[in-house]
Amino acid sequence: MSSVVETMYSSVLTSNHSIYPRTGCHISYYYEAIKIQVYKSGHYSFNSMSNINTYGYMYAKYFDPFSPSAYLISADDDSSSNSQFNISIPLEINTEYILVVTTYNSNVTGSFSIRVSGPNRVGLERLNSPPVIQSTYLSMLTENSQHFPQPSGTGKYYYESIQINVNMSGLFIISSKSRSDLLGSIYKNSFNPLNPTENLLEVDDNGCSDNQFKLLIALEVNTKYILVVTTSQANVTGTFSIIVSGPTKAVLERTNISSTSISTATAFTTTTKPSYACMNYHPTWILIMICSIINLMKKII
């Protein structure tokens, strides 16, 4: 009968650790990434020991904090006692694995240990985690805000356009926080409210909980981006905040888009009309998604 060999690892999650969106949206979970060196293939168990509620994730080859579901091979929360995780998994030699130790609740710090049991000892080495810098923008949609052109009698969809610039290229998460049901879209170089599919890069409605949007997008330095924030229902106003998270600080500045206060159906006939009569659809963000699909199909055909 083969013997079981144990390897121990101890550390402390602090406020100086990097943060990431464990749940997919809110970037407020401290974590530590640990490289695992396997010297003998076999079945291994990773058991956490701590006074805080830990959460464990196992990755093969690579861990991307902005895309925590990629390369994920196993995860566990409370399989062990005292709200601890226990990941039991076969590991192969000559394969790099990464164990990410974080917490069930956000903004929690504390000490922890990992006990690894298996057919041989394993190498455990803390990895340097890239810093995540957050930039916050606060504003309010009011009845004086710009609004999309809509057929008369359909109500007004207020919006705010925000220019975003970064001084380092990289992957960013742009998310919203509000009591209103928000929708967000991001454009490259310019935004035309009379043709909301022009220069459109990404659009999202409920990528986050509480009817908030989340845009995961690669932004380039020396490039102008326009984020447009609006609501899913007409005639809705209220405060909101935008959080941009990435490898560098983002500069967010409100912009004014010309010719955006046209509110009747006449606007659609006096301007260049997009193909397939897309502008007949409303609300505007249903329009965006429908037209994006139509334009993509048109290119394929």
Task: Write the element-wise H/E pattern from the N-terminal end onward.
Answer: EEEEEEEEEEEEEEEEEEEEEHH
Number of helices: 2
Name the poorly predicted regions: 259-282
Per CATH, which architecture of the largest domain?
Sandwich
CATH class of the largest domain: Mainly Beta
SSE-based structural type: mainly beta
| Main beta sheet | 6 strands, antiparallel
Strand fraction: over 45%
Structure description:
This protein is mostly beta strands and 301 residues long. The protein has two domains: 5-126, Jelly Rolls (Sandwich); 133-300, Jelly Rolls. The chain has two helices and 21 strands. Strands 13, 14, 16, 17, 19 and 21 form a six-stranded antiparallel beta sheet that branches. A five-stranded antiparallel beta sheet has the order 7-6-9-4-11, with no helix packed on it. A four-stranded antiparallel beta sheet has the order 1-10-5-8, with no helix packed on it. Strand 2 (19-20) and strand 3 form a beta hairpin. The radius of gyration is 24 Å and the shape is elongated. The termini are far apart. Residues 259-282 have low confidence and may be disordered.
Keywords:
single chain, 301 residues, mainly beta, Jelly Rolls, 6-stranded antiparallel β-sheet, 5-stranded antiparallel β-sheet, elongated
Set out the fold topology:
Elements: E1 5-13, E2 19-20, E3 29-30, E4 32-38, E5 42-50, E6 54-60, E7 72-76, E8 86-91, E9 97-103, E10 110-118, E11 122-126, E12 133-141, E13 146-147, E14 158-166, E15 170-178, E16 182-188, E17 200-204, E18 214-219, E19 225-231, E20 238-246, E21 250-255, H1 266-269, H2 284-300
Antiparallel strand pairs: 1-10, 2-3, 4-9, 4-11, 5-8, 5-10, 6-7, 6-9, 12-20, 13-14, 14-19, 14-21, 15-18, 15-20, 16-17, 16-19
